[in-house]
């Protein structure tokens, strides 16, 4: 019988009992899990990782972001992640990147991967962007 089908007080007792058993057997359980993972083939390990990543996209994104923020010297993002790229306004299937100045490390905004790469390839400077704009104006006539 599932816990959801039980009266709340019985479900709570069952949960407490399972928790107690887990705490008493924690080392054995962890050793078995480690042994199982050591014996996995690379193909099976990859299937498990992909399945986990699909189910936990937001959790993994937060972990990834936190690591990147720490590298940049931020304890948390300077402002919340918007729904759209702050440069082009588009919504990206991929996560928005934390854009920053590579010389000073100062946070600039949230960009989609295309805008982030485009700015980076143009040297992250206004002069290069101005030349690119002039080129597009000249060549589109």
Word description of this protein:
- By secondary structure, the chain is mostly helical.
- The protein has two domains: 3-54, no CATH class; 77-139, His-Me finger endonucleases (His-Me finger endonuclease fold, 3-Layer(aba) Sandwich), CATH 3.40.1800.10.
- It contains six helices and two strands.
- The protein has a two-stranded antiparallel ribbon with strand order 1-2.
- The radius of gyration is 24 Å and the shape is elongated.
- The termini are far apart.
- The mean pLDDT is 85.
Please summarize what this structure is.
The chain is mainly alpha-helical and 141 residues long.
Query: How many separate structural domains?
Result: 2
Number of strands: 2
**Distance between the ends:** 74 Å
CATH homologous superfamily caption of the largest domain: His-Me finger endonucleases
Q: What is the multimeric organization of the chains shown?
A: single chain
Order of strands side by side in the largest beta sheet? Answer: 1-2
Amount of beta strand: 5-15%
């Amino acid at each position: 019988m599932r816990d959801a089908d039980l009266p709340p007080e019985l479900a709570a007792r069952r949960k407490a009992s399972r928790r107690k058993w887990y705490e008493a057997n924690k080392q054995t359980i962890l050793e078995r899990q480690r042994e199982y993972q050591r014996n996995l083939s690379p193909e099976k390990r990859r299937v498990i990782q992909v399945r986990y990543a699909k189910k936990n996209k937001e959790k993994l994104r937060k972990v990834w972001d936190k690591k990147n923020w720490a590298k940049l010297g931020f304890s948390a993002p300077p402002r919340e992640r918007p729904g759209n790229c702050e440069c082009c306004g588009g919504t990206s299937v991929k996560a928005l990147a934390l854009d920053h100045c590579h010389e000073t490390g100062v946070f600039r905004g949230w960009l989609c991967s295309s805008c982030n790469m485009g700015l980076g390839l143009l040297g992250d400077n206004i002069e290069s962007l101005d030349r690119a704009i002039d080129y597009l104006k000249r060549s589109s006539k």
